[in-house]
Design goal:
There is one protein chain. It is built from 9 helices and 4 strands. It is of the alpha+beta class and 448 residues long. The chain has a 4-stranded antiparallel beta sheet, with no helix packed on it. The radius of gyration is 40 Å and the shape is elongated. The N terminus is likely disordered.
Amino acid sequence: MKYSLLTRYNIRLTLLSLSFFSFSGLFSQEKTNLKRCIETGLEKNFELRISKNNQRISDNNFTPGNAGMLPTVDLNSAYAGSLRDRTNYPSGGGAAVETSNISDTGFDAGVSLSWTIFDGLSMFTNYDRLKVLQKAGELNTRLAIENFVATISGEYYNFVQQNIRYSNLKSAVGLSKERLRIVEARYKIGSMSRFDLQQARVDFNADSSRLIKQQETLFASRIRMNQLMALTDVEQQFVPSDTSIVFNKLLSKEDLWSNTLKSNTLILLAEKEKNISILDLKTSQSKNYPYLKLNAGYGYSTDKYGASTYRRQDYLGTSYGLTLGFNVFDGLNRRRQQQNARIQIENKTLETQELELSLRSDFSNMWMAYQNNMELTALEQENVNNARLNYDIAMDRYKVGDLSGIELREAQNSLLEAEERLVQAQYNTKLCEISLLQISGGIAGMMN
C-alpha cells in the first residue's frame, strides 16, 4: 500500500506541475495570430534587416555618377622647393663661376575638370546595368521576405500541431487515469487482480511520460517562433489564436502554375541575371568605338628663383584640352571578351530553362502531395470519429466488466494513433499549401 500511495502522489504532482506550466500563461497572454507573427518578424528579423540594407546599397549605387556619365572636379594645391649649388662654365673658356645655396620654390593651386564625353556608349550601358542591379536587389529582398513568410508560417502551424498533440496526449492521460481509478476501486473489493492494477499503472505512467516529452517538443517550437520574430526573450509565452489547422481546399493547379511563370521570384531573378549578361556584352562592344575626353582647369602658380634673370614668376589662367583615342589592337582580348559574353548569355538562357523545369517538377510533386494529403485528412477524420466511438463502446463494456484492460488499452491506443495521423495529415497539407503559394509568388497572401 505504501508503494501505491507514493506512486499516486508522484503522478498527481507531475500532472499538477505540467498543468500549471502549460496553462498558467494562457489566461494572462493575449492570443497571437499568424499575421501578427509575420508583421513582428518583418520588422525585427535580422536576416530580413540585412537583406533590406543590401537593397539600400543597390539603390544608392544607381546614379549617373556611378555609371561614369558625370565629370569629376578636383581642387588641388602643391608646394615644392629645392636648395642647390650651381657651377657655370663659360663657353669661351675662363674660370668657372660657382653659386652656393640657390633656393628655388614653387606653389600651385587650382581646380581641374575631367569628363569622358564619349566612350562607345559604355556609360549608358553601365547606367542600365546599375538599374538592373537595383531591381535585382529588390527581388532579393522579396525572395528573403517570401522565404521568411513560408518559414514562420510553417513553424506557426507546427506549433499549433504540437499544441493539438499535447491536448490529445493530455486527454489520453485523463482516460488512463479514469481506467486506473476503476481498477483501484475494483481491486479494493477484490473483483480485479493485482496484475490488472499494475498494468493500469504502467499504462498511466507511459501516457504521462509521453505528455512530458511532448511538453519539451512544444517548448522547442515556441523558442523557434520567438527566434524567428527576433524577440529578446526567446522563452516568452506564445499562445496561437488557431486551435486547429485549416487549409485551402480550392487551390487551382492551372492558376498556380500560370502565376509561377509570371511571378516566381527565382525566375524573375534569372531574367535579371540574363539582362546583366546582355549588358556586359554591350559594354565589351563599346570598346569597338573611339573615346573622347575633355580636360580643363583653372589655377594660379608662382615660382621663386634664388639665382635667375627673374626673381619670381606668377601664372594665372585656364588650361584645356581634348583627347581622342581608339584602341587599334589589344592582343585580340576585345574579341575574346565579346565571345565569352555571348556564351554567358547562352548559359543564362539555359539556366533559366533549367530553373523552369525544376520548378515544374517541384510544383507537380507538391501538387500531388497536396491532393493526397487532403484525401488522407478526410480519411483520418473518419478514422478518428470511428476510433472515438469504438473507445466509448469499449469503456462502457469495461465498466460493466465485459472487456479486459488490454482490450480497452488497444482501443485507447487506436484513438490516439488516429488523432496523431489526422493532425499530421492536416499539417502536411498546410505545408503543401504554403509551398505552392511560395512557388507561385502568392505567399504574401499568408499575411492577410
